[in-house]
Model the fold of this input.
Amino acid sequence: MSKNLPESHISATVKQALAEDIGEGDITALLIPEENTAEAIVITREQAVVCGTAWVDEVFAQLDPAVRIEWRVRDGDEVKPGDILLTLSGPARSLLTGERTALNFLQTLSGTATIARQFAALVKGTTIQILDTRKTIPGLRLAQKYAVTVGGCHNHRIGLYDAFLIKENHIAACGGIVAAVTKAREIAPDKPVEVEVESLEEFQQALQAGADIIMLDNFDEKQIREAIAINRGIARLEVSGNLEVDNLAAKAIEGIDYLSSGSLTKHCRAIDLSMRIQLKNLPD
Done:
């Protein structure tokens, strides 16, 4: 996926997020006089890789164009506890109303990018790419996949439409690996065909069927090396199955093209951020 997401997608995602938070109106913000202005800073309480600046900009662009934002970081920057990420100024009501939605995007996407940076460091200096999966937060798939690339990892297929991934149930329903791959070629000859296998026997069947990519699901190191020897560079090889930061390096074996992990997105922990607001032109 390109690191440049369509503005229309960001706009639609932000519109939905604001609608679910504000509803018929922010009644608590009405406690603040309409004419009051404020300044604010957003700081991080922990080390992180920043991601989500465009979503924050869009939140306040939709909420109130009078809000001014000055970024001190950009997507991909590494920050440490206490660092100021941005400053804001404008109508106090608007800053308070937009605070949570803006931080939700920024803390969640920064969390994804931070995990991805940790994973990417494990294969630095190799040709292996670490891939994400479709195990994303509903409604935030493109955003999280963008964050994965910001962190230095790569995207697997975006959805069910841009590549075949033939798994156990597909194989059973089609009557075998060869039949499934053959049918896939007939349906969409221009789409990549990947087959997930659970044994060396299945691996050989997928190789003979002409799969573009073969996913070695939960193979141990010995099985992986055997598959590499059998493959001889014919198909691209992907290793998957409970890959985490503490065990991924052991599967980064020469001859493997990809390591895929759902943990990049499904185990995402939001970064601890805080917005500190100072009201201006208060009554004497």
Q: What stands out?
A: The first helix runs from residue 7 to 22. The radius of gyration is 23 Å. The mean pLDDT is 94.
